[in-house]
Design goal:
alpha/beta; Rossmann fold; 3-stranded mixed sheet; 26% helix
Length: 201
């Protein structure tokens, strides 16, 4: 069973619909026992870093997130869910993230002809091909919606990157913990293949 953590963030049900399309049962839940016993856990979301961490703590979800990450359960953060795995974000000064992975979240810089938030399709390059991308050709396009991006401290954990006025860490991986800044559930066939690869872990 797949647990999708429900902390009242945006764009959660689209992930559940993607799991259904792939023929897998997924439940939206904030029940800590269900999350702890799931085969795979997904932390999706669209929203503000500080507000999201506040809700995670109000719903008493921080400990169980660390539990599943530490015990080896395959865990996937999507969009805001990737950013929350890090320690801090320029979006919400003073707000502490989950600190599961080392690094911070920065704002996409303004630039001529560049709109922020970044909304649209960008191609991926692979500094070192991670397990999410084993069957996904380099140069594949995926769908982004974000104003902030991860700057991972451990560069070996960065498995996919893209360019939008700055090099963006589009996906990271450490052991059983995976994350994507883009939305695989909105990235058509490429995104479905990425999600299949996660479910194979």
């Amino acid at each position: 069973m797949i647990a999708i953590i429900d902390y009242e963030a945006g764009n959660i049900r689209s992930v559940q619909n993607a799991m259904k399309y792939l023929g897998r049962e997924a439940v939206l839940t904030r029940d800590r026992d269900i999350i702890a016993s799931a085969d795979h856990v997904i932390l999706p979301g669209v929203g503000a870093f500080g507000d999201a961490m506040k809700r995670i703590r109000e719903f008493d979800l921080e400990e169980v997130i660390h539990h599943v990450a530490d015990r080896g359960t395959p865990f996937l953060g999507i969009c805001l869910g990737q950013q929350l795995l890090f320690s801090s974000s320029e979006e919400s000064p003073g707000a502490e993230g989950l600190s599961i992975l080392p690094g911070k979240v920065l704002r996409i810089p303004d630039g001529e002809g560049r709109k922020v938030p970044h909304i649209g399709w960008n191609d991926l390059t692979y500094p070192s091909r991670g397990r999410l991308f084993g069957t996904v050709p380099e140069g594949s396009y995926v769908y982004f919606v974000h104003s902030y991006y991860v700057a991972a401290e451990d560069r070996d954990q960065v498995k996919a990157r893209t360019w939008y006025g700055v090099d963006i860490d589009a996906s990271v991986e450490k052991d059983n913990v995976f994350a994507c800044q883009f939305h695989p559930e909105k990235s058509e066939a490429v995104g479905m293949e990425i999600l299949r690869n996660f479910l194979r872990t």
